[in-house]
Amino acid sequence: MSSKRPSGHLDTDCIHAGAEALPAPFGVNTPIVTSSAFDYRQDHVRYPRYHNTLNHEVVARRIAALEGGEAAMVTASGMGAISAIFFSLMQPGDHAILLDGLYGGTMDLVEGLLAPLGFRFSIWNGQPEDLPVLIEERTRLIHVESPTNPLMRVVDLAATARIAREQGVVSVVDNTFATPICQRPIELGFDLVMHSATKYFGGHSDLLCGALIGSSAMIDRLRPNVIRLGSSLNGQDLYLLERSLKTLAVRVERQTANAQALATWLHSRDGIDRVHYPGLDSDPGHAVARGQMHGFGAMLAFRLDDDRDPEAFLDALRIIQPAVSLAGVESTIGQPSYTSHAKLSAEERARLGIDERVMRLSVGIEALADLKHDLDQALG
Ligand SMILES: Cc1ncc(COP(=O)(O)O)c(C=O)c1O
């Protein structure tokens, strides 16, 4: 059987890329393969943990097309994807460079599991001129996010990838916040892209999954450990993920338009100390973001003024729901000091500028007027 080739237009590829041309009785949707047992007397032994059922293959091809990679794997969570990267590209004693302020779960993996096993790490401030001095003989990878969670800091991706390549170091980017609709790091020179597909790829706050995208050779390097670590998704969840991907472009475009308008409005609203959003002219990351993003994404952060009670503000919201995760069609809000960054020490949070008044807003697809009104009445 043959699969549909990417058209190069993301709107079309969200719906069609990688779909299998199936006999007429199956209709237009990929059937859900529920089997975990297959006839072994063939060249290609299938088993769900080997990532080679029909549902695995269709979704992987689609995600690879969206990110502009040759190959992809869908993992059981974003952390499943990150774990496979570190365990595949590094040995104990090897060294990796991590952007300052990465997602708290990534730092917890590094500090709680990898460092005790002898993996070594340095923290990078995100300035390209300060990167080369951190590279050692045993540096194997550089891991960045852009924009970062939660303060939406922007890293110059093309410069990072260029330095990594010159030094023979693998460049890895967590593209969860931007999605390929707003940013395609492989085109900017990155070797490997990962996602918490729990977020925009899933998009409806009802899936836990991850993704890895790169060249075929890079994905082949990761595949054995993804399989060994047991990081695989079942057919039902893969089907839901494929269904969600069909609307990725329309969701993210609408969410991004809402976020840009809300960030601009919050920026001049009484009661708001500061807004972090790369789409604002005043944002320190704006110039770099303009050069590497197509739309600035649908996540933003803001800090309430010191005289505002964060609990009272959250209690007063009627549409926007306090929630730990992000990127659903519904708008959600959270305090990173109690969620993504709760495991950091108070000193570390203070250094990053994250306190209980910092709110991370995941902007949904609701009517902009309703979202604005909700924030307005809660701010009083
Ligand atoms: C930027 C980022 N990367 C990775 C992860 C981890 O993904 P998951 O929760 O799907 O394991 C998260 C989760 O919030 C995230 O926000």
**Oligomeric category:** single chain
Q: How would you write the strand order of the largest sheet?
A: 1-7-6-5-4-2-3
The coarse overall form would be: globular
What share of residues is helical?
25-40%
Strand tally: 12
CATH fold assignment of the largest domain: Aspartate Aminotransferase, domain 2
GO molecular function: carbon-sulfur lyase activity; pyridoxal phosphate binding
Pfam families: Cys_Met_Meta_PP
InterPro entries: Cys/Met-Metab_PyrdxlP-dep_enz (IPR000277), Cys_met_metab_PP (IPR054542), PyrdxlP-dep_Trfase (IPR015424), PyrdxlP-dep_Trfase_major (IPR015421), PyrdxlP-dep_Trfase_small (IPR015422)
Family: Belongs to the trans-sulfuration enzymes family.
Please describe what this structure looks like.
- By secondary structure, this protein is of the alpha/beta class.
- It folds into 2 domains: 10-245, Aspartate Aminotransferase, domain 2, CATH 3.40.640.10; 249-379, Aspartate Aminotransferase, domain 1, CATH 3.90.1150.10.
- It has 13 helices and 12 strands.
- It has helices at 10-16, 54-67, 78-89, 104-114, 157-166, 179-182, 216-228, 235-245, 248-267, 286-292, 310-316, 346-352, 368-379, and strands at 71-75, 95-99, 120-124, 139-145, 170-174, 192-196, 210-214, 272-276, 299-304, 321-322, 332-334, 358-362.
- The strands form 2 sheets. It has a 7-stranded mixed beta sheet, sandwiched between helices. Strands 8-9-12-11-10 form a 5-stranded mixed beta sheet, covered by helices on one side.
- Helix 2 (54-67) runs parallel beside helix 8.
- It is globular and about 70 Å long.
- The model has no long low-confidence stretch (mean pLDDT 96).
- Pyridoxal-5'-phosphate binds at residues 77-79, 103, 105, 145, 149, 174, 176-177, 196, 198, 208, 210.
- Keywords: Lyase, Pyridoxal phosphate.
- GO terms for molecular function: carbon-sulfur lyase activity; pyridoxal phosphate binding.
- Belongs to the trans-sulfuration enzymes family.
- InterPro entries: Cys/Met-Metab_PyrdxlP-dep_enz, Cys_met_metab_PP, PyrdxlP-dep_Trfase, PyrdxlP-dep_Trfase_major, PyrdxlP-dep_Trfase_small.
- This is Cystathionine beta-lyase metC.
